[in-house]
Amino acid sequence: MDYKDAAWPVSRRVEDLLKRMTVEEKIGQLIQPFGWKAYIRNDDGTIKLTEEFKSQLAEGGIGSLYGTLRADPWTGVTLANGLSPREGAEAVNAIQRYAMEHSRLGVPILFGEECSHGHMAIEATVFPVPLTIGSTWNTELFRSISRAVAAETRAQGGAATYSPVLDVVRDPRWGRTEETFGEDPHLVAEFAVAAVQGLQGERLDSHTSLLATLKHFAGYGASEGGRNGAPVHMGLRELHEVDLLPFRKAVEAGALSVMTAYNEIDGVPCTSSRYLLQDVLREAWGFDGFVITDCGAIHMLACGHNTAGSGVEAAAQSLKAGVDMEMSGTMFQAHLHQALEQGLITEDDLNMAAGRVLELKFRLGLFDRPYVDPAWAEQVIGCKEHTALAYQAAAEGIVLLKNEGDLLPLDSSSGTIAVIGPNAHAPYHQLGDYTSPQPPGQIVTVLDGIRRRLGDSRVLYAPGCRIQGDSRDGFPRALACAEQADVIVMVLGGSSARDFGEGTIDLRTGASVVTGHAESDMECGEGIDRSTLTLMGVQLELLQELHKLGKPVIVVYINGRPITEPWIDEHIPSIVEAWYPGQEGGGAIADMLFGDINPSGRLPLSIPKEVGQLPISYNARRTRGKRYLETDLAPRYPFGFGLSYTEFRYGRLTVEPSVVPIGGEAAVRIDVTNAGARDGAEVVQLYVSDLAASVTRPEKALKGFRKVFLKAGETQEVTFTIGSEQLELIGLDLKPVVEPGEFRIQVGPDSTKGEIASLMVEG
């Protein structure tokens, strides 16, 4: 049988295997049931396969399993009943062995896992969320993190990940803002390329490589009102210029899997959009991987979007549009055979989809090396090298928003510090959504980090209040701690923590109370959208009471979306934005507060003054309209902004040549000097403005950035290249074009300021 011979080309092996498969077996390759339901863990850590899994395999096979090692409240997998790294690898091997030995043709299963910011399995490294990664403006660091995530996941048998998230955020009230890299398509695209290169590596069949899945295709971050899965109102030009750019760049980088979005665009659901999945993705971009749906998306065509009158029609619509695999698998499994009998699809359609899935299985090496080494899993998962990467990402992603009077950095040699707030010592609150249960002591909180530096005797702690709710029972303890302290560190914000059964916090004592059921403080994450961006509960009231004491106060935000609190911006001298900084985040924050880390994070999105300004972004069209009666259109903190403990100065901007033909290139050079007394890193940002064009343009658009480290007193020349990619627009025919005319070049520390030069393009 040619398909079993590794010497043959992949195309020959796929062709041979398809000829041998029945219709049921081809349909089986297109379904992806929930993997954690395929087995039951025995007391000794081994597993027993369920009869449902065995039956489904016997009836036609299973192409893929979703979240086999996923651990969280949804799956019901806990630290008590879950699998260790070695046990997980052994379990996946057992499932794979059964599939290959008990299916007629011995086709391996593709194991797909969630890895938004680390493999969502027990003991895997928890990196900062993508919003924090976006704040690092360091794509090389993220490439290394993606390699680490790939190694940890593949070590247990996972061969595909449902990341990176490439949605461009329009409205940060959206609960999944934390999963994105921010509001700018160029910034997102650069991280997209790094993700694909890091996850897939040099060889897809390597034991440290993982199939990257780009999601959510497309426009998912532009939903109406920031509500998850709501309609998207967008023209094709904006779609191509903004939302599709990161996906196109990732496909060009070699991405081989794409996930459809839940939403519709101008009345057409993405899961049944032939324009997106065929005309754009495959024909225009040359994508040669496979397309998978988000969980339950095909069902929505019949019950939600109502573009299909039945499940049979929904399954047929998505397959004909270009979907190759269904996450959850229920609609394809139940209805594709009937759709074939009714003539809604053809066997050629099945061959096309099944062939794409099989091709990736061959390219991943699953037919030739279907099993993993449990000893390697035990060695690599959660290793020290990956922990160090998690710390570095948290450190570089911290954004210093305000520092009046140089209150920061703090002097660790004197004084007592009160660490107060609901996020000061709440491990799950600093991890974000899509996180597995964590062993005790695995997460370094802000309180942990400060205690490590100063010792217990000089650090006072009180939670003060919860994220949500109106209980003020913790106020007296918080005020008592603050009165004894020289400095107050307030750790406020939000939470994307699911109920892991860890219990709650006694506000009066600050002690953890194990109840087996947690009071949920979740106000962010998938499906958790908000109508405002203010702090929830009585957090602001607690801060205001402590502020009356007249002590220096530092606010540290741990959260998944921007916070708009004018009182805090006006009254608190130092404000730090850390987003969800991952398992090492508390240590990184403490080191930043005391000056061991010079903050270098920059905002990947604009923070508004108030929610009424939304949508707000630095690259709005020139025709964005007039100001509001009550406020202007300027953000509180602009895109690209972030302070440092040193001072960077820009000078001698040159553009050579200053006149180029269409298709030509120019070199942009600028001197950047660290004029302060501390070493530090600066993010040098390049913006381009097209001063007159055939279609309306943004006032400015990010087209390049460099993160450079400068010692105190050092000057470095930073160079960018400007060519067609930086100057093009989507023209009247919806095709990229560079038009002649004048372009303004801005290079500086954020989107609002910098040195200015001109570039002329001649036709």
Automatic annotation (TrEMBL):
SMART domains: Fn3_like
InterPro entries found in the cross-reference section: Cellulose_Degrad_GH3, Fn3-like, GH, Glyco_hydro_3_C, Glyco_hydro_3_C_sf, Glyco_hydro_3_N, Glyco_hydro_3_N_sf, Ig-like_fold
Pfam families: Fn3-like (PF14310), Glyco_hydro_3 (PF00933), Glyco_hydro_3_C (PF01915)
Keywords, comma-separated and alphabetical: Hydrolase
Hydrolase among keywords: yes
Domain (Fibronectin type III-like): residue spans on this chain: 682-751
A GO BP annotation: glucan catabolic process
Family of this protein: Belongs to the glycosyl hydrolase 3 family.
Protein's name according to its UniProt entry: Beta-glucosidase
Species: Paenibacillus lautus (Bacillus lautus)
